[in-house]
Amino acid sequence: MQDAVPLSQIVRGTRVDAGRKKVVAVVVVLVVITAGAVAYLLTHEHAGRSEASNALSVISPEVQNFVVNVTTTGTVRLKTGAEVRVGAQVSGIVRKLNVTVGSRIQQGDVIAEIDSRPIEAQINQARTQVEMDQVALGKAQRDLSRGQQLLSAGLVPRQQTEDLDWQYKSAQARLANSQSNLAAAELTLSYAVIKAPISGIVSSVSTQEGETVAASFAAPTFVTIVQDNALELVAMVDETDIANVRPGDPVTFTVEAYASREFSGMVERIDPTATIVSGVVNYQVVIEIRKGLRFLKPDMTANISIQTAKRQALVLPSVAVHRDGDRSFVYLLRDRKQEKQNVSVGARDASVTEIVRGLKPGDRVVTENSQNSKKRDKP
What we know:
6-stranded antiparallel β-barrel, alpha+beta, 4-stranded antiparallel β-sheet, Elongation Factor Tu (Ef-tu), domain 3, 3 helices, CATH 2.40.420.20, CATH 2.40.50.100
């Protein structure tokens, strides 16, 4: 038979079990509280995200100075007459050549000299002929004077006097002809010295000292001179934009060589005939360059912006304007609800759009939210 357990030991065991149960209960309560707190935080975080996703970005159209630009590309080129090919009008040996490629010359500077000795010989011959004709004219004049005196005295017939008059006039004509030949020879001599017709830079040289040039059929080209700062900008403007471009419109442009530098100009003229490039109708717009000419060279490619208008207009960020086929619309916020509003748009630039009809200042236009972000412009 088992021995009896003392009462004091039973009492101590009961107290220990009760303490353990109490600790377990406290742990369970703490776990429940922690789980509830975590669930509460997660629920509110999700709700906050949901509210943020439904937050609206709203803006009102404003009246601003709206600048309308036509953007296109173009090429820097030489003006008509800015490139001159200088040649020789007489044949002969090039005795002296004073320029090389890259030489800067002024109008009137001597470019080259051709051996002038054959021409000088022709001049001497012409001068001798003039002197001979002057002597012949003097003799004919003296004979005519004597004949007229004899005719007055009745000593010679009238026909003889008429013959003397004819000889005198013939001598006058021969002298005039020889004088013309002398002047032509002297003019030819001036062609032996070739001078620059314009100021500029020599871009090419096609002959050398000692070479013989023949000018019988066409004047051979000695050098080509490019005039200083004789550049213009040619833009190709699409037919959809050309109606807004006018002579006098201000222009800004950049070139690849100086991407950070902005050049300025003005529309000078618009060609009346179209140029078709890859099936697209374009019109050539010639622009006078007014700033930065010294940095530019022919055939540089330019990115061009032509300012066609500047006016007060109601504008809206382009991101808020949507398209559905040919129609444009926006979303208005009224009484916390979005309403689709059709609008008529005018000109656009990179960031804003002109609103012609359909909105007024103070209207609340939705620019972006979770609902209309899925309703992008349809192609």
